[in-house]
């Protein structure tokens, strides 16, 4: 699915940025290897040149900084918690998830995966559930994630969130959808 949150849009842009850097480095290395295999030329004055040693020390450091700074910015963006509009608690069980809207009294339900024989044409196997979680659009939503029994992973890729549900631990994530849809 396409990105539906600002965090996921930033992650996609960072992926493209890092992929372009990797492509340029790989092309340069392939070009140098092909030159070394096809030519017999050797320049003796470059064997002990300190300028070249400085270049191949400083250039990789600059490239690492070009990758690290956007990565750190996105990392801090994912951990930024504003005042949430709504709090959703997701509790993982062996074969299903329980959801509780903490801001409202007695608003909780279980969400089970739909069996294959109940699926309608166009629905996805192992992705459709009997009770979907409904969240408002363009609002900061805090999701508290935990587990009842074993390790689980609560993920919504198009919103850029993936958090582990660990028994006895309460993890927190922020979700914000910028367009309506089924995620």
UniProtKB/TrEMBL annotation:
Residues 83-183 form the Cytochrome oxidase subunit II copper A binding domain. Keywords: Copper, Electron transport, Magnesium, Membrane, Metal-binding, Mitochondrion, Mitochondrion inner membrane, Respiratory chain, Translocase, Transmembrane, Transmembrane helix, Transport. Pfam families: COX2 (PF00116), COX2_TM (PF02790). It catalyses: 4 Fe(II)-[cytochrome c] + O2 + 8 H(+)(in) = 4 Fe(III)-[cytochrome c] + 2 H2O + 4 H(+)(out). Its main location: mitochondrion. InterPro entries: CcO_II, CcO_II-like_C, Cupredoxin, Cyt_c_oxidase_su2_TM_dom, Cyt_c_oxidase_su2_TM_sf. Belongs to the cytochrome c oxidase subunit 2 family. This is Cytochrome c oxidase subunit 2. The gene is COII.
